[in-house]
Design brief:
Elements: H1 2-35, H2 39-55, H3 57-66, H4 69-93, H5 98-126, H6 132-161, H7 165-181, H8 196-209, H9 211-241, H10 246-274, H11 276-296, H12 300-328, H13 334-363, H14 367-383, H15 389-396
Helix pairs in contact: 1-2, 1-5, 1-6, 1-7, 2-5, 2-13, 3-5, 3-8, 3-13, 4-5, 4-7, 5-12, 5-13, 6-10, 6-12, 8-13, 9-10, 9-13, 9-14, 10-11, 10-12, 11-12, 11-14
């Protein structure tokens, strides 16, 4: 009962944090657009928010393995609260400019990077091993439904009412997140401390030596190239190819979120019925077919259904991968390995976004879908053998598959 209650508090904290993230991520670009009409400067806000993932993912993992993960979630929530409160006050006073907006988003991105890592490493401390897929699925569902489905229209509406209010709402929510996180069990790494550079290297080497986790990291990175390419131009696809306006674009994103929410609720049951390796393999096939179908259709309803299926697949896939990582990686290395894993996967997402824009400009709006399908096909061929039920089940039990150097 204690573990269940602790997970409930962790889930609530993570979901409230995701809801606030979604509100801020809508309001930030809207605020930037009132300050400048230069597309490069507006896009710079996204760069400021995502850059910490490339610069500090490894260091964030090392910090999570050094300090009490519970208090890291508290501290990073309060830091984000202070930054967003400052931004809200500046907007209210009419003194918000692009440098402040960039700085706040960069700081929030850094703190959020540590928060997400710490929250992920707390899951195996409050959930029984047999329930990891279910727990990770519910965390993913809470994030998807909160950040994507509920927050986006709500954040835009709040900004229209009062431009400062979305940032203040996020700040107040983060106070609740900090209060909930403070009630979680202590989670301190008792292993001897080593220099930060050495600690970072240990996490990277552990990931590179572990065959299944290494393959999963590259699989998600390659998948993210295709997903990032489509996401970067999805708004243009909605307007110019599917013939829907802003509301239609919002509904497409909502379909993705609804599918993700369903996947989060069903992840544990799906894995029990089919086996984790089989689900991972099937997911790669589904992802390839969805890209092909979405690239071939001009019907917005069909595109929405395909996006819902993609959302379901992505959340179930992520739940399994997170469970494998939490089961297989030693507790004292979990933050660093998660940081190294995140660095690889974020790099794939950013590379995909760049490729998507270039492909759409020079080869048309369908080209990003073909890139996504190509990435999926490569993964079906390249990862199929490794992602088998025997090895994935062994990893879920904390035993490295054959050939692993642990």
């Amino acid at each position: 009962m204690v573990a269940l209650g602790a997970f409930g508090r962790l889930w609530t904290a993570a979901s409230v944090s995701a809801l606030g993230d979604g509100v801020t991520l809508v309001a930030g670009p809207l605020l930037a657009a009132t300050l400048t009409r230069d597309p490069v400067r507006v896009a710079g806000l996204t760069v400021a928010q995502m850059l910490p993932g490339l610069l500090f993912a490894l260091h964030a993992g090392a910090l999570v393995d050094r300090w009490d993960r519970r208090w890291l979630t508290v501290g990073t929530s309060l830091l984000r609260m202070a930054a967003l409160g400052l931004l809200s006050a500046a907007v209210l006073a009419g003194g918000a400019g692009l440098p402040l907006l960039y700085g706040v988003f960069f700081l929030v991105g850094c703190a959020g990077l540590v928060f997400d890592n710490a929250a992920a490493t707390l899951v195996p401390a409050v959930v029984a091993p047999a329930r990891l897929e279910q727990a990770n699925g519910r965390l993913q569902a809470g994030r998807m439904l909160g950040e994507q489905l509920a927050a986006k229209p709500f954040g835009a509406w709040l900004f229209a009412v009062a431009a400062w209010s979305p940032f203040l709402l996020d700040a107040v929510g983060l106070l609740l997140v900090a209060a909930l996180a403070a009630t979680l069990p202590a989670n301190v790494n008792t292993a001897p401390r080593v220099p930060l550079r050495t600690a970072v290297g240990e996490g990277v080497r552990w990931l590179l030596r572990q065959r299944l986790l290494r393959m999963l990291a590259w699989t998600v990175a390659v998948s993210n190239v295709g997903l990032g390419a489509v996401s970067a131009v999805l708004v243009l696809i909605a307007h110019e190819r599917l013939g829907v306006g802003a509301v239609g674009y919002g509904l497409l994103l909502a379909a993705l979120a609804v599918g993700g929410g369903a996947g989060g609720l069903l992840a544990g049951r799906i894995v029990r019925l089919a086996g984790p390796g089989t689900v991972l393999r099937a997911g790669l096939v589904v992802e390839t077919l969805v890209h092909l179908g979405a690239g071939a259709t001009r019907n917005a309803v069909v595109a929405g259904l395909l996006l819902a299926l993609m959302g379901l697949h992505l959340v179930v896939f992520s739940a399994i991968v997170a469970s494998v990582r939490q089961s297989l990686v030693p507790a004292e290395l979990l933050g660093r390995v998660h940081g190294a894993y995140r660095l690889v996967t974020v790099a794939g997402l950013l590379a995909g976004a760049v490729c998507g824009g270039l492909l759409a400009r020079h080869a048309g709006l369908v080209a990003p879908f073909w890139l996504g399908a190509g990435c999926g096909a490569v993964l079906v061929v390249g990862a199929w053998r490794t992602l088998n039920d025997r090895d994935v089940r062994a990893a879920r039990e904390g035993v490295g598959p054959p050939g692993s150097d642990r």
